[in-house]
Amino acid sequence: MADTIYFLILVPMVYLAAAVFVVGIVGRVARILASPPHGSTLRIFPARRASGLRALADTFLMPQARKHTPVFWVFLMLFHLAFLLLILGHLDLIPGVGLMPADSPHMLGGGAVGVAVTLAILYFLLRRMQGPVREISTLGDYLLLLLLLFLALTGGMISWANSWNQANGGFVISKQDFGAYLASLLRFDFASPRDLLPGSHYIVVVIHVFLANLFLMVFPFTKIIHTFFAMPLNRLRRG
Amino acid sequence: MADHEAVKVLDLKGLPCPMPVVKMSQEIGSVKVGEVIEVHTTDPGSLSDFPAWAKSSGNQVLESQQDGGVIRIFVKRLK
Amino acid sequence: MEAALQEKLKGLMASKLSREMRLYLDTCARCGICIEACHAYASMPETRYTAVARAETIRRLFRRYFKAEGRLLPGLGETIELDDAALEKVHETAYTCTGCRRCMTYCPFGIDTQMIQGIAKLLLIGADREPKLLTMLADMSIAKGETIRDTKGAFEQAVRNLEAEVIEKWRGEAGREAIPVGVKGADVLYVALAGKHSIIPAAAIMNAAGEKWSLSYFEAVNFGAFVGNPEKTREISRRIIDEATELGVREVAICECGTAYRVMKHQTGRHPFEVISFVDLMERYLRDGRIRVDRAKLDGSRVTYHDPCQMARNGGVIEEPRRVLRELAGDFVEMRPNRGENWCCGGGGGLVAMGEKDFRMKSARVKAEQVRATGATVLATACENCHTQLSDLNEHYGMGVRVAFLSQLVADALVQA
Fold it and tell me: Which positions fall inside the UPF0033 domain (chain B) (predicted)?
């Protein structure tokens, strides 16, 4: 029974999550593009040269946050940079991508990015639980942060647990094992993941993938959509 | 140009935009239907504002008089 | 609430859902960076005065009726029903916001709170709960488009009666009207407000510059925009656009009224004429040497400038007033923050017209402190609304300044050639 559930989470649900993610985002963007344009400018002044570049800088460097909430900005930058590295690190598991040297047993960042993301999420949670930010927070805001927190913690656990067996000649579940699992997913061969991922903390991997699936599925329908909308919005402001 | 029997005189000279019309619309309720308010103002815009306000609010400007810089407008409450 | 009304309000909401509006409504991360941006919050720290809380009222209605996730999972605390209580909240949200858009300089995404409050204002109109005073003023402006034929004569007479006061400030050429009206082919159509204080100084300045100008029959202010009624906003602007087109003017100069300028400059599309602010015009006259001013008039005065939100942050008229003031005053100091980041005076969004004095004074404590910190004795600005609000603040907080329009300072300092 448990094995069936694990299989459902590790294989079909991943496909479902990816489909919801893609269709959700496409649908959301299409809904916006199908709406009539506002018609007049929504920019603010003073006007500066190279407004496109400035909108890019606003999106990726968040100078407004740096100016008004500098500590928060440090964690925001840390979180987003680390998150980006985590995405790259996970893609790097796919055989043949090769961001890290082929012979390295470590993921991109060697666990440090996972720690960085976790710290940032903890800061976000603490910040949200006090003062005026607490009053503007919704249940959804906390649930999302908790989802991210457990995603980061399980990811960290997998990374950490893997190193236990290092003395005995290698990781419990090696990068190559994860690579084989991802390759199998990409081949749609519905191979049993249990055969590809040996190790007693298999259940942690299942939880991690389950949370990741959830994350992908709520992505288009929550504020995480700002990933895609931050840039067009900043262009509106810069004019 | 006989003066109209005004039951109330409003001095709206030198007020910022849009206070003359705002004050007028607040005061019109304080007189009875059929009674007249006399407004004193120095704003040239009042000469077109008050008739337009009267038209859109269902009241009536009986007459406006200009004496040098001072403008007198007689407004009758119709409803 | 009746189902029919609810349907009508949903329809009104839908009519506001442009691409940009959807982006604004979809994106907020509730990060709270905007919390400190609002002058009302800075003056009385209550969550309801934050940009995010204001927008959230509308977002929750939007999610409830226009988003599948809001319909499926209303329990996440992110939706509200459109009922009487919601409309109360919508009213508070819309009419404690001056639409200054200062929060846009804080938000990492640049979300436009004023635009979102446009939904709030339209819902209130639909439910017949908007401030009736603003609708009354908008209706008056529209009616004026129809009654102007009958009242033109009286208006022209009143304008004639003002000419002596213009000539006191500037002796024009003999035989030339001090306040020309209805001049075909004029270079500049000047759109004033009803009050003579917005006509006399401007007339003296344009006469001093030898401008070929004409005074508009209409007032610049757009109460349709204050009350958030898109049709009325258009109709009110259209009177001026038609007049300018008929006279064939090159430029339409909007008097010192922030909303009037922004609506005409940025929200009415393209015209066969240019839209400028009267501040632009004064700056140009000074730069080209068409007028000269006597700095001695402001000797011993320390002058500071309040950037009206709709002129500066939302209109782009930022350096021009400063150049004018540097010509006028030996001791010009900036308030901080300034320009695009200036604190709102607290009078915008229709609040001055509505009265609301208690809220206006309390919510603008931060403005009074900001002005006081400059040590200025003259507080210049370029917006009727700001001028009224700043004058009220001056009295309420004992700021001890003289609040003045830029045009008034320039007209008082004109040097007769």
Answer: 10-34
Catalytic-labelled residue, pool B17, B22, B33, B78: B17
ipTM: 0.94
- Please name the chains neighbouring A, where neighbouring means 3+ C-beta pairs under 8 angstroms: C
**Partner-chain contact C76 A232, CB within 8 Å:** no
The rounded distance, in Å, linking the Cα atoms of A193 and A170 is 20
Number of domains in chain B: 1
On whether both C107 and C183 belong to a single domain, the answer is: no
Cβ proximity of A54 and A60 under 8 Å: no
Asked if residue A59 belongs to a domain, the reply is: no
Give the domain CATH number at C262. Answer: 3.40.50
**DSSP 8-state assignment for residue C228:** T
B39 in Cβ contact with B18 (< 8 Å): no
The pLDDT tens digits of the residues spanning A151-188 come to 999 999 888 877 666 555 556 788 888 999 999 999 99
One-letter amino acid identity for C374?
T
Q: Do B17 and C221 touch (CB under 8 A)?
A: yes
Residue C359: phi and psi, rounded to 5, are -65, -40
Tell me the chain B residues in contact with residue C161 when contact means C-beta distances shorter than 8 Å: 44, 66, 68-69
Chains with 3 or more CB pairs closer than 8 angstroms to C? A, B
How many helices and strands (H and E) does chain B possess?
A: 2, 4
Cα distance from B11 to chain C (closest Cα, Å)? 14
Show the domain range for C150: 132-287
pLDDT digits (tens, 9 = 90+) for C332-348: 999 999 999 999 999 99
Q: Which residues contact C168 (CB under 8 A, 6 or more apart)?
A: none
**Digit-coded pLDDT (tens) for C42-99:** 999 999 999 999 999 999 999 999 998 788 877 776 789 999 999 999 999 999 999 9
pTM of this structure: 0.95
Query: Is B1 within the bounds of a domain?
Result: no
The answer to which of A63-72, A126-135, B66-75 has the lowest mean pLDDT is: B66-75
B30 assigned to active site: no
- Do residues C114 and C266 touch, judged by C-beta distance below 8 A? no
- Structural domains of chain C, count: 3
Domain of residue B31, residue span:
6-76
